[in-house]
Amino acid sequence: MSQATASSSDQAAVNQAVNAFYDAVIGKNQAQLDALTSEHLSYGHSVGRIENKAQCIANTIGPRTAWKSIDRLEPSVQVTGDIALARHVMAGVAVREGKTDDSKMGVLMVWQKQSGAWKLLARQSYKI
User: How much is the pLDDT for 6?
Assistant: First the structure.
């Protein structure tokens, strides 16, 4: 397999993992979130809060926020070996403590190939 083919295949797999992650967020799917995230996850929010894997999953599936939709705008994926950088603008609608909130923020996700599967290692969002 050529490097270009491997990279293209990995890029598609990372895009699929990002989409699966957002589907799991919307569906509050704990098992899927667990499967897609590294044990060493560092999850940064645009307000500066940093969570580990357990905190991220607990807050995602908890009752405080329910995501109704999440769209990835301007997506790009760059793969270097077993690391992938996925950048995009996340536009979504969430209900937080009973109030509907439209969100739009920049996101950088760092994915690492672990035992043949792409796992979210780090994520940082920022206000745009």
Answer: 54
- Nearest Cα residue to 26 out of 92, 88, 73, 87: 92
The number of domains in the chain is 1
Sheet holding 117-127, edge to edge: 50-51, 37-44, 117-127, 99-114, 83-96, 65-80
Domain around 58? 3-127
Per-10-residue mean pLDDT, the chain, length 128: 63 98 98 98 96 98 96 97 98 94 97 97 97
- Report the alpha-carbon distance of residue 64 to residue 116 in Å, rounded: 34
Which residues have a Cβ under 8 Å from the Cβ of 46 and sit 6 or more positions away? 105, 125, 126, 127
What's the CATH number where 41 sits? 3.10.450.50
